[in-house]
Specification:
about 80 residues, alpha/beta, three-stranded parallel beta sheet, 4 helices, about 55% helix
Length: about 80
């Protein structure tokens, strides 16, 4: 299980708000080193669940904000910081 998914799940159980600072895809670095169709699906699911579990997501660009909205993340959770 990815650390981000574990932390977000634990925070939710404890009632601790989750603020995610998004500077890019959560799994992009790992994908550079690992291949495989099922592995990529797994990491995409983990990323999606981590974003969904977050109370707020801070993005550093409009393109990142638009990417999250296209992935189905609620706009009210996303904050643009620039």
């Amino acid at each position: 299980l990815a650390p981000s998914a574990f932390i977000s799940s634990l925070s939710r159980l404890k009632g601790i708000p989750i603020i995610l600072d998004n500077h890019g895809d959560l799994i992009s670095e790992r994908e550079l080193y690992e291949t495989g169709f099922l592995r990529k699906i797994y990491y995409n699911i983990i990323s999606f669940l981590t974003f969904k579990a977050s109370n707020r997501i801070v993005c550093v660009s409009n393109s990142m904000m638009e990417d999250l909205k296209e992935r189905g993340i609620e706009e009210k959770k996303i904050v643009l910081c620039n």
